Structure formats: structure tokens, C-alpha cells
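Usage

Read records sequentially. Each one opens with the input sequence:
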Amino acid sequence: MARLEFKLPDIGEGIAEAEVVEWHAAVGEAVAEGQVVASVMTDKATVEIEAPADGRIVERGAQAGAMLPIGAVLFVMETAGEVAPGESVAAPADSAAGSGLAVAAPEMSSAAAPEPAAPATPRAAGHPVLAAPAVRRRAADLGIDLAAVPTSADRVRHEDLDRYLLAQRGPRTGGASGAAGGTAIPLTGLRRQIARRMEEAARHIPHFTYVEELDVTELELLRETLNAGRGRDEQLHPLPLLVFAMCRALEDVPQLNAHFDDRRDMITQFGAVHAGIATQTDKGLMVPVLRDADRLDIWQIGRAIADLAARARSGTITRDELAGSTITVTSLGKLGGIAATPIINRPEVAILAPHRIIERCRWIDGAAEPRKMMNLSISCDHRIIDGQVAAQFVAAIRQLLETPAMLGLT
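and closes with the structure output:
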């Protein structure tokens, strides 16, 4: 029998490590070439890793829930093929998961929960601090000296930072009867990625939120007209109209369609609008990207949003479709409340949140009149965007949605 070491491949995002989300084959289990052995997660998506040959799994390189550096041994197989004893392989980026890094929603069952880590020990004085670039960036963002972070490995990992942060917070106090026990739920997979990204964005970006009230009565009448005679699956919802209006408003206020690289003090303002559409899935929040939204009509936008959302929820969306947004829209639909303080999808500089449409009376020409009203919230990076610019942008959207003839839909 030949021994084959399979190394975690570089999956093309310039990342230094990935999380082992789930094992699909047990130690001792026979697998066929092309059979999915493990799922690993990057900052963007989950990638299924296939067996490179027929054989038997004899060793795993990490537990589910652990971070593994690119190039580290992911698993070891015994094969009866032509692989020489001790030979190592690393799959090319486009060979994982069949036709190309197909994305599957991560499982977060108890079976995927990481086992307790080995006790971390303080680093000896003068010992060099080793860490992947992503870990160093995160520590810098959090203002943490890596030399102070204990680790049981040869380098500081994300989970070491997690434990360090938890320890810094200390035990809860003030309860009359103390802790009441409970169930410990490890944070893994997509939920952990969401937690990190949200924490980094909230800590790093000085957000401000602006809320405006819109009268969408005329817009709703137009929508009813456009939907007349169409089947349920063809109905136009408010979100595509908002995205359409947002793209028109960005023509006058392009400052919000941008990224800010705060390490280089560099703003990149985009011509095309690649709209991130925050989508709730069973596994957590995902942000598929509607590319070139400014070139689409409302029906194309509506179909594209529905398609992206459906594939995000089914776990079949691709990694590329989750990257490259220039501004994000987040909506809770009919649960949309009356206002929100959404967190910016870093490195973008703005995120827009429409809220539910409710009927209220307004005084018009001295008489109370029932109108359909909707609030619109926007959070901006105050390092780059001033309040006046945000108000100007929202005012442009308001004008378009309150006077839908200006949208130029016909």
C-alpha cells in the first residue's frame, strides 16, 4: 500500500488558512476518487475537498472546527495505486469539488463541533511570534499584541485570539445566584465567519446611521399595475425597485459606491454597481452579489435577486458570487421594523436597509389621507462619508421612489 498525504490547497483567495467545517469520511473508511472527504471554509465560502484517488482514509490533519494553514496535511490515505510511499499531493484550486469549488452550506451540527483544544501556554520570552497574515491583521484591528496571546500550537491562530478575547472579558458579575449553567455551543463554520467579520467591521469603522421616511404610495400603485396579470413567481417586489433607484441615485452621489482601504488610506470609487444583497439562510447571513446592477432593468434585477437568494439558501451559490460587492442592501422584508443600524460590509463604505411598508395617515392639503409609508436606513463609514452626503443620497432615492415616473421604467 502507498501512503498519500493530501495537503490543503490554495483555493485562490490569497488566504493563509481555512477552517475544517466537516468531515465526510471517517478514519478507516474506504473512499473513491472524486468522493467528497471534507468541507473547508474560507472567509467567503465553503469548499468541498475530494479524494484524489481510490483508497482508505488513515489520518485526519485537523478536527472539525479547527483552522488549518494552506499547505498543511488535510488527510492521509492509503492507496493501492501508483503513488509512491510518503508522497504528498495538493489539489489545484480548480480541482476541488468537481467543476470548481462548488459551495455548500456548512453544517453546524453537534458532530461538527470542535473537541476541546489542548491547554494553551504562554510563549517563552524572546520567542518569535508566528501567525498567519490574516491572524496578524485581525489582531492589529483588535489592538491585541500577539506576543500576549497564549497558544498550544507553533503559531497563534484565530481560535487562540477567540480564547484570549473571551478571557479578557472575564466572568460575569452581579447575579444574585451566579451562573445558571447552560449548553456550550461552539461557534464554527459560517457563524464564526459572520461573527469575526461583524466584530472587525464594528470595531474598525466609525459608523453613523441616518433614517428617512418615504411615502411610497405612488410606487405601490405602480407595482400593482406592473404585477397585474403576472403569476406569483413573476411578481415584482419592493426590493428590486429600491435597488434600481439606488443605482440611479449613485450616478449623482458616487461617493457611496466605493471601498476604503484604511491600511493604504486609499479610496476606490467604482463606476459599475455590484450590489451585495444580504440574504438570511438557515446557516446564517450571506451576501451574494448582483453584478452590474446599474445595467439591469427592474425585471432583470428582480429575477437575479430571487435566483441569488434561492441558491444562497440551498447552498449551491458559487464563491465568486459572494465576492466583489461595492455597496450592500440588507432587508428583513415584511419583518423590516421601522429603523435599524446595519453594520457595513467592509471594505465598503455604506449599507442601505429598507423597512416594512405600513399604512399611516398624513396631513395633505389640510386633510388626513391614508398613505403607504416606508423608512429607509443607511449606515456609512464616517471616515469617508459625511452626514450631508448620506442625506443627499437618501434624498435622491426618496425623490425617485416617491415620484416613480422619474425612474424611467416605461
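Summary fields computed downstream for this record:
- Residues 39 and 48 are 4 Å apart (CA to CA).
- Confidence is low (pLDDT under 50) at residues 92-118.
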